Amino acid sequence: ETEEYLESLQNDLKTVTPDVEKSRLLYQSLVGSEPGKSSGWLGFAQLEESVGNISKAKELINNGIALSVDSTEDLYFNLARLENNSEVVYQRALKVHSLSSKIWIAYINSKKNDIDKRCIVKMALAYLTESLDLWNQLISLNDGDSDKVNVLEEAIQNCPSFHRFWIQLSNLQSPSEKLKTLREANRFFENSNVEICFELAKSVEENDESSEEYKALLTTCTKILRGMTTNETNSFLINAVKNSKSFDSVNFLFLVKEVSEIFEKNIDALFELSVDLPLRQFLEILIRWTNLKN
Predict the structure, then answer these.
(1) Cβ contacts of residue 1 below 8 Å, gap of 6+?
(2) Torsion region of 190: left, alpha or beta (phi above 0 gives left; psi -120 to 50 gives alpha)
(3) What is the CA 152 to chain-centroid distance, rounded?
(4) In the structure, what pLDDT confidence band is assigned to residue 16 with cuts at 50, 70 and 90?
């Protein structure tokens, strides 16, 4: 009931010119009767901010932080926005919300120096070892390939179910190391992730390994694709074709076959593909599809 009232009050403030004194009295009554609700304090602070009373807004947010019994994340975010030194606010917030990836990332983004950012990300990962957002931040903050490899290996140890980390790592490795990493990933996913399976098939072909192995892998890819939604299948095929480097490889011919089946069911997909793909890849697909039909 209180939440509905608050929402109604805040909507009124947005849509009509507020009677500040009347609204102020309403908020005073609200935070007086329910001081444990952070939304009341936040709404009151936003009212004061809207009329330029920044010091009062900050005072109300601090009161809300002290008295609220529900989440105070939004109060801290608004206080950081109003304060000149947001770093102090985020440090204070993290004493209460050490498991909030939103606050950690806001703290990281408040820094301009990449060295400082890396330091804070590592601190955050001590609390949130499985946060994909934080691992991705740390990967992006490392420039050298060897540094990225080290971070990705650690990310995989903590988040092995995120297949993109395996693929990112393999793309930074030598052909033989790449093959080893992708085989390990495929074992972990028990031959059930189409992107890992396809990348492994490409790596097997590039390393001139057993043709039987990559044929078996491509057969597995087909089975996995048949169990995916149309959107998931299209997304995978478009990305795979975009990243194709050799148009004469067995892997590219596999993609042509899969894309051709989509065309047979829905010719409109041909025009959608023409928008999503670079011209060269689209023409290669189109030529080979035409040859298959003939």
Answers:
(1) none
(2) left
(3) 16
(4) very low
Greatest CA separation for the chain: 79
Tokens standing for 270?
A: 């041909």
Write the DSSP symbol of residue 53: -
Residue 185: CA atoms inside 13 Å, Cβ hemisphere, count?
A: 30
CB burial of residue 115 (10 Å; 0-12, 13-18, 19+): exposed
> Which CA distances in Å does 43 have to 10, 57, 174, 241, 260?
7, 10, 56, 50, 56
123: its two tokens: 């601190």
Find all residues with CB under 8 Å of 222, minimum gap 6, and list them.
254, 258
Buried/exposed code over 222-242 (b: 16+ C-beta within 10 A; e: otherwise): eebbeeeeeeebbebbbebbe
* Least confident piece of the model among 3-17, 77-91, 167-181: 3-17
Query: In the prediction, which pLDDT does 204 show?
Result: 92
Q: Distance between terminal CA atoms of the chain?
A: 68
- In tens, the pLDDT along 180-203 reads 999 999 999 999 999 999 999 999
Token reading at 129? 């070892």
Where do runs of H (alpha helix) occur along the chain?
A: 2-15, 20-33, 38-50, 54-67, 73-82, 86-96, 101-109, 114-127, 132-140, 145-158, 163-170, 175-188, 194-206, 211-226, 230-242, 250-265, 268-276, 279-293
Mean pLDDT, all residues of the chain:
87
Please, are residues 197 and 217 in contact by the beta-carbon 8 Å criterion? Answer: yes
Alpha-carbon distance 221 to 191, whole Å?
9
